[in-house]
Amino acid sequence: GQIFEAFNLAALFKAPCLFTCENNHYGMGTSDVRAAANPNYYTRGDAVPGIKMDGMNVLAVRAFYKSCDRLDEAGNGPVVAEVETYRYYGHSMSDPGTSYRTRDEVQEVRKTKDPITQLKSFILEGELATAAEIKDLETECRQVVDEGVEFARASPELEVHEMFNTIYTDMDGVRI
């Protein structure tokens, strides 16, 4: 439907679009290989080239998206990126995520592929920071998040007329 229309128009006009498919391999509790005739989503753009990457590798994702600047400048048009990830929890409150995968599977992914753990290892192995510096940064990040949560909980709810402020803009940057 609409996504294929978008791919087609972007390809026709060589629009510098980047379409990203975050693939955690499950739609609710159904594995992608059981639900899709072609689970290689990066190939489904037809006339739009695609790439598949390990979304659990922070450096690989960063390198790809940085390279997209050059793609835009070259005028080659759109690209489809399939970013393989892993969902540690169920899809929603009605999906605890425990009926179609084991706790051992989830723990194995956390242990071997977690992006934050991998990045910490890259930083330590490259001697870009010490373990103590990383610990201090984690503490600082938790404090910022906790302050943000506290601020949000203490703030009044938005009025209905404010709900969509700053979401849509025209080309001059004026709110619509």
What does this structure look like?
The chain has six helices and five strands. It has helices at about 1-10, 30-35, 60-75, 105-115, 115-125, 130-155; strands at about 20-25, 25, 30, 50-55, 80-85. The strands form two sheets. It has a three-stranded parallel beta sheet, covered by helices on one side. The longest helix has 24 residues, at about 130-155.
Write the layout of secondary structure elements.
Elements: H1 2-12, E1 18-23, E2 26-27, E3 30-31, H2 32-35, E4 50-54, H3 58-74, E5 79-84, H4 103-113, H5 115-125, H6 131-154
Parallel strand pairs: 1-5, 4-5
Antiparallel strand pairs: 2-3
Quick synopsis:
The chain is α/β, with parallel strands linked by helices. It has helices at residues 2-12, 32-35, 58-74, 103-113, 115-125, 131-154, and strands at residues 18-23, 26-27, 30-31, 50-54, 79-84. It is globular, with a radius of gyration of 20 Å.
Shape from CA axes? globular
The helicity comes to 40-55%
Mean pLDDT: 85
Order of helices and strands: HEEEHEHEHHH
Q: Find the structural class using helix and strand composition.
A: alpha/beta
